[in-house]
Amino acid sequence: MRTEKKAQPLAEQEIDQIVVAQAKDDADWGKPVRVRKTKTVSVPLPSALATRVGFFARLHREQRRTVSASCNRSYGAVNFIC
Is-contact 63 72, C-beta < 8 A? Predict the structure, then answer.
């Protein structure tokens, strides 16, 4: 029965050398890929889920609130009121 040796992790400098060597080799580079921004999708939420989302949004905002005393925002079909 053979025991396989685990590869030793590379040092940061060794990784940098490999990356630089591969970056300079034009054969490793393919055609550029074009990515288009997807259109916004509206997702209907059940009222119970929308209520929970609103609760957690207010809780999150309360933790991050600094100056704003009040807010009233609408995101699609769900209104969040602080």
Answer: no
Q: Burial code of 40-51, b = ≥16 C-beta within 10 A, e = fewer?
A: eeeeeeeeeebe
Write the CA distances from 24 to 2, 19, 20, 27, 36, integer angstroms.
39, 9, 6, 9, 28
pTM strictly above 0.70: no
Q: Which residues contact 3 (CB under 8 A, 6 or more apart)?
A: none
Query: Where are the domains positioned within the chain?
Result: 46-82
pLDDT tens track for 28-70: 777 888 888 888 888 888 999 989 989 998 888 877 664 444 4
